Every structure is written in structure tokens, then in C-alpha cells.
Amino acid sequence: MVIIREYIIKDIPAMIDIWNQVVEEGIAFPQEEMLTEAEGVEFFSAQSYCGVAQDKDTGEILGLYILHPNNVGRCGHICNASYAVSVKKRGQHIGEKLVLDCIQQAHAIGFRILQFNAVVASNASARHLYEKIGFRQLGIIPGGFRLKSGEYEDICPYYMEV
What we know:
Blueprint: E1 2-6, H1 12-25, H2 37-45, E2 49-55, E3 61-69, E4 78-85, H3 94-109, E5 113-120, H4 124-133, E6 136-137, E7 141-146, E8 152-161
Parallel strand pairs: 4-5
Antiparallel strand pairs: 1-2, 2-3, 3-4, 5-8, 6-8, 7-8
């Protein structure tokens, strides 16, 4: 059974490993540098909220999300999130559980809109999930994402009122 809960300090090594898997793939996150342990502690603690997906039986961390403001001031009610699922655990609906929990947390914190700035067009599984949950695509930014290969791909911003 998979549970979603707020992260605790002892989760950070697993969170860094999963985060870095996505960065290394170079097809979804804008970051190019891997998180070190020290950077990971600082990065995750700076978020408004971090949730982890955990196997209740084994205690293994399977995925995570970060939630933070997308902007400041008059646009501070808009938040942004990123999701990462362990390469070994994909296809088990863990991402969906993370997104649904994130929506609840965003609302509880007081955000009004959850916006994804840079969903890579070829990330069909994420796009399908977001649309299934009720996110709306805002358009297309041609060539907005540079893949690890050096090629450019379109990005599709999405949003949902929370």
C-alpha cells in the first residue's frame, strides 16, 4: 500500500536519489546539476511543502513532490509543483497519488491556482494524467525545453484552480 505524507529529514537521501534520476534523464526537469546531500537538505526545506510516496509495508520512498509559489506579490496565490517517481516504480499510479495530494496541500496552504510552467510535450503520461485530473493546457511554447540531447522540444503549460 502506498501512502502520501509530508517528508521528514530521514527521507532526504531517497528524495535526492529520485530527484536526480529525473534530472539525469534530461527529459522533464529544467535542472541540469545533480543535488548533493547538502543542497538537497536546503532545496527541500525551502519549499512550501514536500510530499513523499512511501510503501507502507517496506518504508521505501517511491516518489515525491515539491510545492512552492510560482510568483510573488499580486501573483503569490499561484503555486507550482514538480513530481518525481523512482524509475523502478513508474507505471503504478504513484504520480497520480502525488498530484492529488499536492492539490489538497496547495488548497490547505491557501494557494488558489496550481500551474505547471514547463510540461515537456513528449511527456505523454504526465500530460494524460494532468488532463484526466482536470488541468487545462494554456498553450504551447515552441522549443521551450532543451533536452539532454541538445535538441529543443515544445513545452505545454497547465493550470488548475485549487
